[in-house]
Amino acid sequence: MQNKKKNKNEFDLPLLLTPGQDIAGYAGRHIGRAVLFCITAFSVIAVLLILFFVMKQAWPFIASGKWTEFLSSDQWYPQAEDAEFGALAIVTGSFYVTLIAMLIASPIGLLSAVFLSDMAPFRLRQIVKPVIEILAAIPSVAYGFFAVLVLAPWLQDHFGFSTGTNALNAGIILAVMALPTIISVAEDALSSIGRDIREASYGLGATRAETMMKVVLPAAHSGIIAAFILGVMRAVGETMVVWMASGNANQFPSPWWDVSSSVRTMTATIAGEMGETPEGSEHRFALFALGVLLLIFTMLLNLLSEIFTSSFKRTMGGKR
Question: What family is this (predicted)?
Fold first, then answer.
């Protein structure tokens, strides 16, 4: 009865609108569109304002022409009488711990995604995947305490390292933090490959392993690469964990494969020194220049991620 009454009311609407109703509908449609556009543009404007603010604060250092020293020297002595701002060791430290994290997280994340998408029973997948995603909700300071109080002593006791707060410690924790992103995105990419493609491969006599290695993984490679890039962005932008676990030593690992060396990263340097620098000092401008470098790197990674994601969507015919 209610449906009949509702349908009757809909048919009671006039087929021809009055000029007032027509104008009100026109105005409402455009006002609604403008409101939604403003809401959508808010995040874009916020990002642009952040970029403008960081660039404005870094500009005095950029205009001073010290970029060559900044990018080629490892002498970071901002408090010295003749201050030096060589950030090469700091930038290298960021890439070093990120590389360690990705060497650990990439194979684990990909194999976990393969298991969840093609091997795990549906009920187990419904339990395991949310648990993995909970890792992303743990505060980074909690990871930092675990790195300092548990992992650092363990590394010293079992590997004989002189200090447990080093590049390996930070890399392991960053890998754990990047895993939820890598597993979730890669699993989505693998699951979106249709079952018909897998069944066609099985129909041609391929085994499950051959189907995965020669059909599914190549078809989903763009989505998997995007997952890895998002994992890199998660690792390189992390602050608290590397501040607590990397040792904060402004040096190159020597030899370069010595993962037990303490290093310092861009994010930890900015977080550790920004609060102690006076307004308008060259030290403060140099820290914002580090921020500009970090922003450029993360934006390039984001661009690459978008390119691979778009490529994957085109491969799948826009189905995602």
Answer: Belongs to the binding-protein-dependent transport system permease family. CysTW subfamily.
